[in-house]
Amino acid sequence: MPISASEILKRTVTTPDPANSNQLHDVFALPAGRTLDICLNIQSAILEHKLAPGLKLSEDEVGEIYGASRTVVRAALQALAHSGLISIRKNRGAFVAKPSIREAHEVFQARALIEPAVARLAAEVITETQLANLKAHLEAEHVAIHSADMGHALMLSGSFHTAIADIADHRVFSGMVRSLISRSSLIIALYWKRSDTACESHSHNALLRAFEKRDGGEAEKIQKSHIIDLYSGLDLRDQTPETVTLSQALGQKT
What we know:
This protein is mainly alpha-helical. It folds into 2 domains: 5-98 and 239-250, Orthogonal Bundle (Arc Repressor Mutant, subunit A), CATH 1.10.10.10; 101-232, Four Helix Bundle (Hemerythrin (Met), subunit A) (Up-down Bundle). 67% of the residues lie in helices and 4% in strands. It has helices at residues 5-11, 21-28, 34-47, 59-66, 70-83, 101-125, 128-146, 150-168, 171-191, 201-212, 216-232, 246-250; strands at 56-57, 86-89, 93-96. Strands 1-3-2 form a 3-stranded antiparallel sheet. Helix 3 (34-47) packs across helix 5, helix 7 (128-146) runs antiparallel to helix 8 (150-168) and helix 10 runs antiparallel to helix 11 (216-232). The longest helix is centred in the middle third of the chain and has 25 residues, at 101-125. The radius of gyration is 18 Å and the shape is globular. The model is unreliable at 1-26 (pLDDT under 50).
């Protein structure tokens, strides 16, 4: 029996890490506070594939789950819509974004053009501290995979790519990669045809070795191959995802 929508949302209610507050502000263009907290929790639920593409996000139900007013919830949903994670339809409300097959093609074509160049830049400037942080990130990804927590593993896989963009220290590229990774998560939720995670650990390990050698050319080559491999793992045909309500996905309050 599927778990309810309010249960998942309650499970994703967390306190944002203050160390990441500047980065989070950049993503949603919001100051620290209740609205940003709701954005981050719904973002996590979407990126961990706990909220399916096309699922309706009722303002009243979201407000009940988080104990927030309609004004706060509406602001959070508007910010999530601006990030591309949800869509707001006139007279119908907010829904988790549901990318089309054309968008899936275009997102991965864009990633194949942008991310290899970003990996080259990162390899050429990466510091020992940044390298250690990437290693720790990869270890967390492995733990999630071995624990069969595939939703969390997928989120960590995506954030590994955004971490590389941050290391490259190119603000335009970093923003583009962050947007593409968010959209990729929704595409993978709809169209992924493999039983393994979207970013196999060997690809990330190979990238890490290239970064250790500060080999920009090798990092670029590995990242290009990696994105092409991800693209080949998509089954780009019309899909009919399981229909669930928000309360089924996030769990009702007791």
